[in-house]
Design a protein that fits this description.
- The chain folds into two domains: 197 residues, Rossmann fold (3-Layer(aba) Sandwich), CATH 3.40.50.150; 61 residues, no CATH class.
- It is built from nine helices and twelve strands.
- A twelve-stranded mixed beta sheet has the order 1-2-3-4-7-6-5-8-9-12-10-11.
- α3 crosses α5.
- The protein starts with 17 loop residues before the first strand and ends with a strand.
- Bound molecules: zinc ion.
- Zinc ion binds next to loops.
Length: 302
């Protein structure tokens, strides 16, 4: 890892440049020292809370399908990307293969450790990991071609979405692309509770669309990943009502052809959809989608 590859990191407290050593980064503005532990830049007043080593996710690595939204965005090899919330590691690893530099921010130490182990094993020079806890993000404004945000990998005290959207917009270069993986507030609120979901900052579909427009994003597009955002088999483009209605009605009758693995993992929703399938033609699509969508994928440009 060379000094120049970490150009995008700045001091979160005074926003000055950092000089990089093997064990710490020294702020050129306020002289503050930020440690580097296991190759992870640590921006926190406390030591990272976690283990010294973790079991790798699996022998084959994380399931890459979680990053399949990449087909909707213009990825270039010269791109510098920022991943807010590493999740399973699928998004950082997918982007590292497609972009020049990828920065990953997480407040879960073990996620970064696991990703660091894969980075080492695969010899990835362009994947930079930062543990950020109780600090602003250590990046200058307008630095990134792509910023991805995963609401499911944020902690319980996640910011309201409007704040997140504003922060992401500020980090993007003009013309840059943002990708958001977002929870559906209606599903979260008990009808079809979802394991591992976090609550704060979750909105409805129209709430997200409105927040993105209000904060100044251009042409936001929203997709429903089905059956879920972890293993998306279909993306329903909800910003195009005609396409959604058509796809929805075409997909419903196919419900029994999905794999037993998916049926078991989404049992309640599977049963609901199977029950509703015969009425698909008369079903109000918007209402049905609100119940079906465990999450949304939003893509928007600065
Ligand atoms: Zn500083």
């Amino acid at each position: 890892m060379t000094d120049t590859s970490l150009d995008h990191l700045i001091c979160p407290q005074c926003h000055a440049h950092l000089s990089h050593g093997a064990a710490e980064m020294i702020c050129q503005g306020c002289d503050r020292r930020w440690p580097v532990i296991n190759g992870i830049s640590v921006f926190s007043t406390q030591s990272p809370n976690g283990q010294q080593s973790v079991q790798p996710h699996s022998a084959t690595g994380p399931d890459p399908r979680m990053a399949d939204w990449k087909y909707f965005i213009p990825l270039r090899h010269s791109n510098v990307a920022l991943v807010l919330g590493s999740g399973t590691g699928a998004v950082p690893l997918t982007l590292a293969a497609a972009c020049a530099q990828v920065y990953v921010v997480d407040s879960v130490w073990d996620n970064l450790l696991a990703l660091g182990q894969i980075r080492e094993k695969q010899g990835l020079q362009n994947l930079h990991l930062a543990y950020v806890e109780g600090q602003s993000l250590p990046f200058p404004a307008g630095a990134f071609d792509l910023v991805t945000f995963d609401q499911f990998s944020q902690d319980q005290n996640g910011s309201p979405f409007t704040e997140t959207a504003r922060e992401v917009l500020g980090l993007l270069k003009p013309g840059g692309t943002a990708q958001f993986t977002l929870g559906n507030k209606w599903v979260r609120q008990g009808l079809l509770p979802q394991r591992g979901a976090v609550g704060h900052g979750m909105l409805s579909l129209s709430g997200y669309e409105q927040a993105l427009r209000t904060e100044g994003f251009q042409s936001p597009q929203v997709f429903i990943p089905l059956p879920n955002h972890r293993i998306p088999l279909y993306f329903l483009p909800v910003t195009s009502p005609e396409a959604t209605r058509h796809l929805f009605r075409a997909l419903l009758p196919l419900i029994d052809t999905i794999s037993p693995e998916i049926k078991a993992a989404n049992r309640l929703r599977y049963l609901l959809v199977r029950f509703a399938a015969p009425f698909a033609k008369r079903l109000p699509t918007n209402w049905a989608l609100k119940l079906l969508a465990s999450s949304y994928i939003a893509i928007a440009r600065r």
